[in-house]
Amino acid sequence: MWYVIQTMAGREEAVRNEASLLIPEADFKVIYRTGKYNCKGKWISKKKIMFAGYIFAVTDDIEAVIRNIGKITDYAKPVRLSDDYLPISYEEQKFLESLIGDDETVDESIGIIEGDEIIVKEGPLKGLESRIIRVDRHKRLAYIELNMCDRKVEAQLCLNVLEKRPAD
After folding, report:
1. Selection from 94, 96, 129 nearest residue 110 by Cα
2. pTM score, two decimals?
3. What's the fold here for domain 2-165?
4. Domains in the chain: boundaries
5. pLDDT tens-digit profile of 122-157?
6. Which of 112, 132, 143, 149 is nearest to 5 (CA)?
7. C-alpha span between 121 and 126 (Å, rounded)
């Protein structure tokens, strides 16, 4: 099961590395997204953290994580609902697994817009157009909504829209 661990933005890798050493009962993931970003007028390929301030603990023994997470020097705290530490839903876990590759990275998708409809031609968002809630063509981002621990979370994925066509 995947549990959400909150940490400070920018410290995700450090927390993951330290947690991996202290808590061998769990596998820790930091999910990245890759895409092209405009930097001083030039488009460069870059890798960014998809969920800033969060990592995922993949474990069936959340109690071991809870017992040892306080030993980490950086801020790290499992997300909980009232008194329970809840994993993300099975559906959301499978959705995230379908997006990420072996290197825990969501690659850029490529698509077009026909009228008001987004059509993804290639990439991890292909066939998942219904999950896209909005697109920022200038920043080359698609926004999707996930339900994590009974909270709605908006995530940004890279989507390069090649063209916009009028509806037929």
Report:
1. 129
2. 0.86
3. Alpha-Beta Plaits (3.30.70)
4. 2-165
5. 999 999 899 999 999 888 999 998 887 777 888 999
6. 149
7. 6
